[in-house]
Sequence to fold (151 residues):
Amino acid sequence: MGLGLTLASAVILAVTPVYAAESALGEPGDCFSRVYDAEHLKSHPDQRVERFAIGYHPEFQDPNYDLTLLFGFRTRDGNDYVGVGLCEGNQCGVEGDGGMFSLSMQGEALRLEIDPERGMSAESAVDFINLAESDDRVFLLYPASAKACRF
Fold:
């Protein structure tokens, strides 16, 4: 069941640390996403996330931060979760004191690393989740079409 959230426009960060606001941005409709296949999930039994996407939305920018990102993920049980990342440089806090994550490029992939102490929280239509207590700490996400980033 989808939440109807579209993550739009990719955020491309430099290989060396750089402020997200100074980084180049993708075209509308682009994002970074990954769907984990059955083999990967079998080899990572404590991973709860089977799909993850993050993107920049030009109409949803908080002027108090360098960059505002929308993210969403689906857990193995089929629940969709969404959240907002408020970024200063490559460090992002999840809106509502929902944890922290950092962003960097690893080749063509966007590496999203969750703060091990604070985790990364998101909400669904019925509950909240924090990824601190699972094998969901680092995500390598790849450029994808807007269709791949719809929940």
